[in-house]
Amino acid sequence: MTEYQRIMADLSKGLAPYTKGLFEVDENTELVGDLDLDSLQIMELLLFVEDSFDISIPVSILPDVKTVGDLAKQVEKIIGHA
Amino acid sequence: MSQVPDINITLLATPTLSASLLRLADFSTLAEALDYAAQGESGANFYAGSGKLVTVFPYRTLREEARTLAKRLLSFPLERGARVAIVAETNPDFLRFFFACQYAGLVPVALPAVIHVGGHKAYVNQLHGLLQGCRASVAVSSSQLLPFLTEATEGLGLKFVGAASAFDDLPVQNIQLQASGPRETAYLQYTSGSTGFPRGVIITQQAVMANLVGSAHGLDVRLDDRCVSWLPFYHDMGLVGCLLAPMATQRSIDYLDTRDFAMRPRRWLELMTNSRATISFSPPFGYALCVRRLRPEDIALYDLSAWRVAGIGAEPIHVELTDRFSELLAPAGFNALAFVPSYGMAESSLAISFAPLGTGVVVDWLDSDDLADNFIATKVSPNTGSSFVRCGPVLPKHEVVIRDERGNTMVDMHIGRINVRGPSVMSGYFELPEQTRLVLSADGWLDTGDLGYLIDGNIVVTGRHKDMLIINGRNIWPQDIEAIATRQPELRSGDASAVSIPGPEQEDVAVLIVQCNITDLDEQHHLTQQLHREIHEELGISCLIELVPRHTLPRTSSGKLSRSGARKDYLLRRKSKASHES
């Protein structure tokens, strides 16, 4: 399993509660378009990501994140720099 | 097991007690207030999301650095009163630039630093509009946000755009600084108005100082007071209430970043505990977030017994929330009587009124029908009818009246528009004379746009500006949501109405009703998803979306879309759907 796949797997697990059991989360799942997360749920997601990967997510990466895959790539990058 | 994180002791936060005499904001300008605060030991302290203290910034250091930066800023050259736009993150640089402007006779303008997931383009557009609206000469941000700021300033011809550190390379001019004087503009404050039509409120030194004096007395600021804030500096409550007010009374303040608070709301209570803070303000949304995330085992770790002013305002206050917060945190020493319901707005610098200290949340229970049909506040027995919170008397030297639609002054217990006059009121909206005339009369009365009544000298707000939605503590204008809908190729102007309905906990829930001819289910799904996405990217909210056939949305007699009609119809449809399903 590559680092990216491992991150994807963790993210999918963390996001499962938001799908209401309607679909599987994959890298193309959109955080807002598909999961319909509001800004507070985004905060909960960031908290989950920061705590599970022990990283700090800079505010500047969010604007270019649309899908779960985008987020996984950013997490991979942050872990790589750590 | 959870525990209060160990606040690192290698750095020591500034003390709030100071050898100098306490002065309650009786200065003629912000620069003069900082000159005085710099004589003591107090200052601002910045904490990371981990709860660790990262920067200690005494007012003395702030003053020195701001004065040096002022001399660098003036090397551009800039005309007096030129606007300096600061992307307002919660860090020492915001303070440095804000006060450098004070010493240089420039006008700082705080810009929002909130970006939504996928919101790159929307954020750049928003910044562009704000920079253009205040005709900024210089713009600064953190290096993290600089790419967005740079993109936003394209084509605007600013003199300089850079990260905060880039300004340190400018030469220090060997000049005598001439600080912004009492009649000059202290800052421009963008209102939380529609993103489509930003309005910059002009606040003079006299106005803001009058407001700070009023607040310092209203809150009875004392030598041992200490503040905590997670509010952003681009909001009036964050800027005036939680930066200028502590500085002008020489008290120390501890800052948490807004996003860190939104992620980990309990940090607020941990910081209150550790710093023994006495004053902290928040919109109801912040208290609600704590209630939602508190775990029973946390409560024993908090000591909130020093918290004597728990300010609450900026959106409707529900007594159920303050009761719940008080009840949950009573074992941690929180005193329900510490709640101070407050009323204010950027157009009046910040504060208009505070409830009397030590009385907590005082509620009027009113007959709902008399309120809706006759605009009269008729008292009924507690826990029946509608409840509204008393926000106290207007600040000293200010006046308040309630007016009906024709401008007649109403007597107590009659509901009308709240009008305020006094030294804290703005000079107007920057370069928007027509907008200014709509709200500010020639004899100085500010029409707040809010509805309310007076009782025994107390202001009670019963409704806010027509149509405005408040979602998670942020003001959202229906026209901004509707504009996102009607720019879709499938839709045309007049095809959308945005309204709010009460959610399960009385909070506002945004609903967008869209009329269209689309019958194909896939196409309907696509449109709905597109709207969800764009609304989040631009406004950061999630919104219920209902598609209805064309010609469903009701219009007024003059042919304009009726939001109240659309809301009523929506609720009826929902009710009938629910009864079919049950």
Number of strands of chain A: 0
Spans of chain A of at least 5 consecutive residues whose pLDDT stays below 50 are none
How much strand of chain B? 15-25%
Distance between the termini of chain A: 20 Å
What is the H/E string of chain A? HHH
CATH architectural designation of chain A: Orthogonal Bundle
Can you characterise this structure?
- The complex is a heterodimer of chains A (82) and B (582).
- Chain A is 51% helix and 0% strand.
- Chain A starts with a helix and ends with a helix.
- Chain A is mainly α and 82 residues long.
- Chain A has a single domain, classed as ACP-like (Non-ribosomal Peptide Synthetase Peptidyl Carrier Protein, Chain A, Orthogonal Bundle).
- Chain A is globular, with a radius of gyration of 12 Å.
- Chain A has three helices and no strands.
- In chain B, α6 packs across α7 (236-248).
- Chain B is globular, with a radius of gyration of 24 Å.
- In chain B, 31% of the residues lie in helices and 23% in strands.
- In chain B, the strands form seven sheets. Chain B has an eight-stranded mixed beta sheet, sandwiched between helices. In chain B, strands 4-3-5-6 form a four-stranded parallel beta sheet, sandwiched between helices. In chain B, strands 17-18-20-21 form a four-stranded antiparallel beta sheet, with no helix packed on it.
- Chain B has 16 helices and 26 strands.
- Chain B has 582 residues and is of the alpha/beta class.
- Chain A binds chain B through residues 30-34, 36-44, 46-47, 50, 56, 58-60, 62-66, and chain B through 49, 89, 113, 115-120, 123, 144-145, 147-148, 259, 262-264, 289, 472, 529-530, 532-533, 536-537, 540-542.
